[in-house]
Amino acid sequence: MDRYASNCAFSGDMPHEVLEAAHLYSYAKVGDHHDEGGILLRRDLHRLFDLGKIAVLDNSRISVHNSLRPYPLYNELDGQRLKIESTVKQRSWFGAHRDMWHVDVA
User: Fold this and answer.
1) Is the dihedral of CA 21, 12, 54, 79 positive or negative?
2) Residue 62 CA neighbour count, 13 Å, CB half
3) I want to staple 90 with a disulfide (CB 3.0 to 4.6 A). Which of 26, 38, 50, 86 is the partner?
4) Handedness of CA 24, 67, 81, 4 (dihedral sign)
5) For residue range 38-86, what is the model confidence (pLDDT) as tens digits?
6) Which of 38, 40, 66, 73 shows the shortest CA–CA distance to 52?
7) Nearest Cα to 7, choosing from 45, 39, 54?
8) pTM for this structure?
9) In 10 A of CB 56, how many CB atoms?
10) Nearest Cα to 34, choosing from 102, 105, 87?
């Protein structure tokens, strides 16, 4: 909250009660917290990110899985820019996330 105030990285300003800290890497595998290793996400978006249904492309645009297209709330996020400035390290973790979930960037 100190770094991002009440800004969901995907959807922008939100009440802090609906925001969660989201790791950009598998904390279970790494076991350490990294200064640049997290963002704030709205609870539903956090879950979808963790499941690989939402990803971030190299151009800092959001990619939404086809299975979410019928839902206007999520479909509208597709192609939108992040609401935060990502760091080089965060962009690297976004890339690893895409690779892990085999997100097609074409």
Assistant:
1) negative
2) 24
3) 86
4) negative
5) 999 999 999 999 999 999 999 999 999 999 999 999 999 999 999 999 9
6) 66
7) 39
8) 0.91
9) 25
10) 87
Please answer whether residues 83 and 10 qualify as being in contact, where contact means their C-beta atoms are separated by less than 8 angstroms.
Answer: yes
Mean pLDDT lowest among 23-32, 40-49, 67-76, 89-98 = 23-32
Backbone angles phi and psi of 34, in degrees to 5: -110, 140
The two tokens of residue 69 are 């297209």
Token look-up 């963790």 returns 50
| CB-based contact 27:21 (threshold 8 Å) | no
d(CA 10, CA 32): 24
**Which string of DSSP letters, residue by residue, matches 28-89?**
HHH-S--TTSEEEEEHHHHHHHHTTSEEE-TTSBEEE-GGGTT-HHHHTTTTPBPSSPPPHH
b vs e for 7-37, b when ≥16 Cβ sit within 10 Å of the residue's Cβ?
A: bbbbbeebeeebbeebbbbeeeeeeeeeeeb
